[in-house]
Amino acid sequence: MESSTRAPRRADPALDAVVGTDEVPEPLELLPRKLPTQERSRRKFDALLSASRDLLTEVGFESFTCEEVASRADVPIGTLYQFFANKYVIVCELNRQDFASVRDELEQFDGVIPSLDWLRFLDNFVDHLAMLWTSDPSRREVWLAMQSTPSTRATGKISEKQLAEKIATMLAPLTPRTDWDRRIMMAEVLVHVVYSMLNFSVQDGQAHSEAVAELKRLMAAYLLVAEKESRASQER
Which of 130, 187, 192, 210 could form a disulfide with 164 if both were Cys (CB 3.0 to 4.6 A apart)? Predict the structure, then answer.
């Protein structure tokens, strides 16, 4: 007879030094212990994040250490730990930076969708994102590192949802009769597909331009169907 005893939950390494016990029932959002409030501490905080990006790109997340980050940033290790409990919290902050930059750029295009030229906007914006992934290899390394533990994945999902809410708002004129919950789902699908395909496009041996072209086809087909369905609903 098989034992009904379940194996104990494996500890989430991202929660080391974040909480006082490894018996945590659910993943947690990983946040810095504190954010800088003065210019001097802001410079140290930014230096640590900049050094983290460089190190992550050079050695990957497995070999990434807080000690090396502090050394490269010329900051005492104790200062690093005042801000970040461990390397998982650092990479989550880098991920927030990346998502925030995309949200800020989307703000510049708010109101452009829909126009008769919305497909051109889509092409241009995907090209812009693709350029970011080729010019800044740390974006892919951050994305990969975010897949490493339950808590990093849960934290990344929060940033994805925030971006999806912005996209869902922008999709409203394109899909005027589509309810909010459906637009949120559509936006979350788009965010997930875009990030997955961008990281696929920069894998070793992958034809980047061809992968980006396929991403554009996927997005255009998806949105054209969504627009057609919403317009048809409006006419009924």
Answer: 187
pLDDT of residue 9: 52
What is the average per-residue pLDDT within 160-179?
Answer: 88
Please work out, in degrees rounded to the nearest 5, the angle formed at the alpha carbon of residue 70 by the alpha carbons of 69 and 72: 65
- The first and second tokens of residue 154, run together, are 């849960």
Nearest CA-CA partner of 153 in 91, 66, 83, 232: 91
Is the C-alpha dihedral spanning 46, 63, 65, 96 positive or negative?
positive
Q: What is the pLDDT of residues 193-223, one digit of tens each?
A: 998 999 888 888 889 899 999 999 999 899 8
Residue with tokens 């396929």: 214
- How confident is the model over 83-93, as pLDDT tens digits? 999 999 999 99
Amino acid 53 reads R
> Which amino acid is it at 24?
V
| Domain covering 14-19+27-83 assigned CATH 1.10.10.10 in the classification | no
Residues of the chain with CATH 1.10.357.10: 91-235
